[in-house]
Amino acid sequence: MLRSIIISTAFHFTIIITGIVSLPFVAKKPIDIPPLVSIELIQITDKTNIPYAPKAKKIIDKIKKEKEKLVSEQAPPKKVKKEKPDAIPLPKQEIEDVKKIEEKKQNPEKDDDSIKQVSEFEKKELFDSNSIAALIDKSKEEFAETMIQNDKITQSEDKSMNLSGLTLNEEDALKAQIFGCWSIPLGLPYNENLLVRVKLKLKPDGSVIKSEILDHARMNKPGQGFYKVLAESALRAIQLCQPLRVPTTGYERWKDMQLNFDASEMLKG
Amino acid sequence: MKKLKILFFSLFFILIQSVSYSLIEVDISRGNLNPLPISVSPLFADKKSNNLLKNDLKIENLGLKIADVIENNLEQTGLFNTLSREAFLQKPDIAHLKPRFEDWALIKSQALITGKITYKDEKLKVEFRLWDVLAGREMLALAFTTVPNNWRRIGHIISDKIYERLTGEKGYFDTRIIYVAEAGPKTQRVKKLAIMDQDGFNTKYLTLGNELVLTPRFNPTNQMVTYLSYFKNLPRVYLLDIETGMQEVVGDFPGMTFAPRFSPDGKKIIMSFAKDGNSDIYTMNLENRIVERITNHPSIDTSPSFSPDGKYITFNSDRSGFQQIYVMKSDGSSVRRISFGRGLYGTPVWSPRGDLIAFTKLHKGKFYIGVMRVDGSGERLLTENYYQEAPSWSPNGRVLIFYRETKTDSEGKGFSAKLWSIDLTGYNERKVETLTDASDPSWSSLLSN
Predict the structure, then answer these.
(1) Do the chains contact at A226 and B169, CB–CB below 8 Å?
(2) Rounded to a whole number, what is the distance in Å from the CA of B30 to chain A's nearest CA?
(3) B27 vs A: CB within 8 A
C-alpha cells in the first residue's frame, strides 16, 4: 500500500516537473506582445475632428513605419523614393504635391472633400491669421491621410504600369517629343471629329518598324478629305520624331503602342 | 478526367493572361502651328522648249518663273516656309523623276514640289508632282496644257492644288481682286475701277476715272461686277461685265442706291435705297427686274450681305440708337441684333464658309477689322489702325482683304490708301502691292472652279 502511494506520488511529481519545464507559460508570465499597427488606425475619415498637431504627428510617424514595411514588401524602391519626402514640407507645398499626384494618376479613390478642404484652407489663410496654426495642423493630417491613399494607389498602379502602361515620366517625355514634331494643318474644320489613331510597332531603340492608321476607311469617305490631311500630318510627325523617346527597359511592354492625335483642342483654342 | 482538363486549361489561360500586355495608348492633344518647311524646285524645261519659248515668246527661264509664282503664293499664306534654293542638293530634272529624299530631308524639307515644262505646237504643257519627303512618296501629280501667256495662272492653279492637298481646304490663288484705284491729292482724288490677280500682277483699269466709283463687288458665279457710281448727280448702283466692258444702271429708283452686293447664286442684287433721310434694304432680281423691299424701319439700314446658302442676310442698322450688326431671314423677318460690344459696328460680310461674319468696328477713335460667329458670339478683333474698313473674304474663308488709310500731316501731305490682307489667326498681316493707292477691295471666287 505504502509502496503504491510512493510510486503514485513520484509519478505525479515527475509529471508536474516535466510540465513546468516543457510548458513555460505555466511558470512564466505571458509575453507582452506590442499591438500591431493596423492601417485602419491611420485611415482618418472625419478630418474636421482632428485639428491638433500632436495627433497629426502620431499619424505621420505611424505612416512612416508602415511605409517602410510596404516599400520593402511590394513597391519598387525608385518610385517610392520619388514620392516619399525626406522631410515634411510646408503645408501648402504638401497639399499641392499630393493634389498633382492624385490628378495625374486618375485616382479612383480621389477624395473630393480633401481638395475642397485645401481650397478652403488657402482662403482661410488669407483672412484668418489667428487660426493658421490649427489649419496647418489639420492640413498635416489631411496630408497624412492622402499619403496613405496615395501609397495604396502607387502600389497597385505600379503593378498595372509594369504590365500595361508607361509611367507618367515616360509618357510625358514621349508626348513632349511628339508635340514638337506635329505640325497641325490649319485648314481643318473645327466642328468635326479630329481624332487620328495610329498604331505603331517599335524597335527597342524607339525607331518605327510599322505605322498604321486605324480609321483608314474614313480617309476615302466623301466630305472627309481633311481627315487624310490630318492623318498624313500625324504620320509625318512620327517620321520626324523617330527614334521615339521610349523607356530603356521593358521593350515587351511598349513594342506595340497606339498614339491618339487629336487636333480639336488646338484648333478650337 | 473532364474536370482535370478544365482545371488545366483554366490554369493555362490565367498564365497566358498574366504575361500578356495591354496596348499602351498615348494621347497627343498638342502640336505646333509652325509653317511647314517646303521646297519648290524650279520646273525643268528641255533645251528645245527653252529655245522655242525664248525665240517665239521672249520668255526666258519659264520653269523658274512658275516656281517663283508658286513659292510666293505659298509663302504669303504664312502656313509654309519655303526653303532657299541655294540649299537644294538635287537638280530639277532628276528630282522630278525620282527625288533623293535623304537629300531633301537633310535640309529639313518636309514637302517637295518638282515639275516639268514642254512647249510644243504653240501649246505649253506644265506637269508637277508634290512629294512627301518624310514618307518618301508622291502625294499629288497633275499636268495642265494651255497657251504660253497663261503661265502665271498655271502657277496659281498649281498653288491651289498644293495648298488643298497639304491643308485640307480649298486654295485662293487663282482669283482676282477688284478695287478702286486712287490717284491725286486727297481733295481731288481720281477714282477708277481696277482689277488684278490676287498677287498684284496683271492690273487692268475698267473705268476711265471721269466719275467717282465706290464699293465694287464681284458676282460669286461669274465675271460680273456691281458697284456704285454717279448717274445724273445721284449715286446709283451699276452692273459691269468684265469681259465685254458693258455697264448698266440697276433699276430706276427715285432716290440714291448704294452698298450693292450679289446674292450667292448671282441672280439678285441686294442694296440700300435712301429717300427722305431714311434708308432701307431692297433686292432686285436681275432676270425679271422685280424689286423687293426687305426692311421697313425708320432707321438707317445698310451694308447688306447674304449668307452663303442665301437664307439669311446680315446688315448694319442704327435702330438701337447706335450702329450695330443685325441678322434676319432673307425675306426680312426674324430680325435680331448680334453685336453688343462697345463702339460702332459696320460693313458686315458673311464668310463663304458660313460660320463667321467679318466687320469693321469703330471704338475710341480707332478702327478694327474683326470677326464674330453668326450668332454674335466669339468676337475677335484681328487688326487695329487709325483708319481701315471694308473687309472682303477670300473664297475659302481664311483671309480678309481690306484697305487702310494713313493720316495726313499738318501740311496736308502723307495721305495714302493701301490694300492689306490678314488671316483668321490675326498674325499673318501683309500689304497687298498695287500700282496706285487703292481702296474698297473685293475678292473674286476661284476662277478655275
Answers:
(1) yes
(2) 6
(3) yes
Q: Are residues B200 and B98 in the same domain?
A: no
CATH class of A168-268: alpha beta
Helical packing angle, B151-167 and A225-241, nearest 10°: 80
Q: Cell triple for residue B352?
A: 463663304
Domain boundary among B137, B167, B197: B167
pLDDT in tens, B6-49: 666 665 555 555 455 688 899 998 888 888 999 999 999 988 88
- Listing from the earlier edge strand, what are the strands of the sheet with B190-197? B204-205, B190-197, B176-183, B437-443
B25 inside domain: no
Name the CA dihedral angle for B100, B105, B110, B115, rounded to a multiple of 10 degrees.
-30
Cis peptide upstream of residue A243 (ω within 30 degrees of 0): yes
| CB pair distance less than 8 Å for A239 and B135 | yes
Question: Which range marks the domain in which residue B135 is found?
Answer: 36-167
Q: Give yes or no: residues B155 and B205 share one domain.
A: no
Of the CA atoms within 13 Å of residue A224, those in its CB half-sphere come to 15
Min CA distance, A217 vs chain B (Å)?
17
B377 touches chain A (CB under 8 A): no
For residue B308, give the nearest of B246, B357, B367, B236 by alpha carbon: B357
CB contact under 8 A, A239 and B134: yes
Same structural domain for residues B254 and B376?
yes
Tell me whether residue B449 is in a domain.
Answer: no
Q: Are residues B102 and B218 in the same domain?
A: no
Does residue B288 sit in the same domain as residue B180? Answer: yes
A245/chain B closest Cα distance in angstroms = 13
B366 touches chain A (CB under 8 A): no
Domain count, chain B: 2
C-alpha dist (Å) from residue B387 to B360, B361, B367:
10, 10, 5
The per-residue pLDDT for range A80-118, each reduced to its tens digit, is 444 444 444 444 444 444 444 444 444 444 444 333 333
State whether B143 and B278 are in the same domain.
no
Q: Answer yes or no: is B21 within a domain.
A: no
The answer to whether the CB atoms of B167 and A185 lie below 8 A apart is yes
Torsion of CA A216, A220, A222, A226, to 10 degrees: 70
CA–CA separation, B38 and B36 (whole Å): 6
Q: Contact B26/A175, CB-based, under 8 Å? A: yes
ipTM: 0.72
Rounded to an integer, what distance in angstroms lies between the CA atom of residue B110 and that of residue B366?
Answer: 42
Interface test with A, best of B22, B25, B34, B355 (most A CBs within 10 A): B25
Q: Which residue has the higher pLDDT, B2 or B121?
A: B121
Nearest residue in B to A175, CA atom: B28
Tell me whether residue B9 is in a domain: no
Q: Which of residues 44-83 of A touch B (CB under 8 A)?
A: none
> Which domain CATH number covers B292?
2.120.10.30
Q: Which of B117, B68, B124, B126 is nearest to B93 (CA)?
A: B117
- Spell out the residues 6+ positions from residue A8 whose beta carbon is closer than 8 angstroms to its own: none
| The last residue of a domain, from among B148, B167, B186 | B167
CATH of the domain at B131: 3.40.50.10070
**Shortest alpha-carbon distance between residue A83 and chain B (Å):** 23
Co-location of B428 and B357 in the same domain: yes
| Cβ distance of B134 and A188 shorter than 8 Å | no
Q: Is B284 found in the same domain as B138?
A: no
**Nearest residue on chain A to B111, judged by CA atoms?**
A236
pLDDT digits (tens, 9 = 90+) for A166-188: 888 888 899 999 998 998 887 77
Cβ pair A186:B21 closer than 8 A: no
B25 has a chain A CB within 8 A of its CB: yes
